[in-house]
Amino acid sequence: MRAAQITRLDGPGSIEVVELDDPRPKDTEVLIDVHAAGVTFPDVLLTRGEYQLKPEPPFILGCEVAGVVRSAPDGSGFKPGDRVAAFPGFGGFAECVAVDPALVFPLPENMSFTAGAGLPMNYLTVHFALTRRGGLRSGESMLVHGAAGGVGTAAVQLAVALGAQVIAVVSTEAKAETARRAGAQHTVPADGFRAAVAELTGGRGVDVVVDPVGGDRFTDSLRSLAPEGRLLVIGFTGGEIPTVKVNRLLLNNISVVGVGWGAFWVPRPGYLREQWDELLPLLTAGSLDPVVGSSFPLENASQAVLELAERAAAGKVVIQVR
């Protein structure tokens, strides 16, 4: 099989497409012929050896895929020919991958493999963030940083599907258009977003802030919260990990909430299927449909990861394997 492999830890340029033997699945694993693979920010960090998991090179990138089941063990709930999405963790940038059945999910017939490859990590992360950690309710308002990226567009779509009003923070007009495609009712520029949010909300602020960026926006995000508002910390694509002066939390009874989806589900692998089953009606109805910005052939996997590394992505970046 062809696979995009990391051979050294010096960034996306170290990705090489090579020929390898097909994986030999364990008796308990589902073997999937991969049609498309999603690119995520952990892929960027893995190319630099900066992710919390540090596999030794060589290894295959790719933690989310969509494709067709080649083989499956009895009792797994899957059979050859099933259309699926999956969260293999590693190995997705390849023509074939073996995955634990708990991390494999039925893909609706109305959804393409390209769209399906953008679901597992981003949509399950934001589902955990908005429903379990943030307690987002219909009628509330939400501010989304990095709203044109994979996590951002997923957060916008799910929040709208849950009945929230969404303000998207973006850096360019092209990214504003991507956020609007995802369903954002308002877009505001990253520079001066606090004043723009105050104007849009009549000075009240928003109920929830989704922040996968971190960095120097953090304090103004806190100041943009309404009384009893929640700031959801998802990641730090901006590089800098901000600090909190906790006296700010007292002023309006606001909360800073950690969203460690991986830390939560790893000891509870069955939770992922519970999440998928909750999202499945929205996927089938078309309410959730990843906004794909760029698509690259497997041979250009390094360019796909570089687009994320340079924060140039508008929408989900996907690698077409077949």
Low-confidence stretches: none
Radius of gyration: 19 Å
Under CATH, the homologous superfamily of the largest domain reads Medium-chain alcohol dehydrogenases, catalytic domain
- Highest CATH level, the class of the largest domain: Alpha Beta
Along the chain, the helix and strand elements come as EEEHEEEEEHHEHEHEHEHEHEHHEHE
State the share of residues found in helices, binned by percent. Answer: 25-40%
Number of domains: 2
Number of helices: 11
Assess the beta-strand content as a share of residues: 25-35%
Which structural class do you get from the secondary structure elements?
alpha/beta
Topology, number of strands: 16
**CATH topology category name of the largest domain:** Quinone Oxidoreductase, Chain A, domain 1
Largest sheet entry: 7 strands, mixed
What's the architecture of the largest domain in CATH terms?
Alpha-Beta Complex
Shape: globular
The chain-level mean pLDDT equals 95
Instruction: Report how far the terminal alpha carbons are from each other.
Output: 11 Å
Could you explain how this protein is built, in words?
The chain is an alpha/beta fold and 322 residues long. The chain folds into 2 domains: 2-119 and 290-320, Quinone Oxidoreductase, Chain A, domain 1; 122-262, Rossmann fold (3-Layer(aba) Sandwich). Helices cover 30% and strands 26% of the residues. It has 11 helices and 16 strands. The strands form 3 sheets. Strands 3, 5, 6, 7, 8, 15 and 16 form a 7-stranded mixed sheet that branches. Strands 11-10-9-12-13-14 form a 6-stranded parallel sheet, sandwiched between helices. The chain has a 3-stranded antiparallel sheet with strand order 2-1-4, with no helix packed on it. β15, α11 and β16 (316-320) form a beta-alpha-beta unit. α3 (120-133) crosses α4 (150-161).
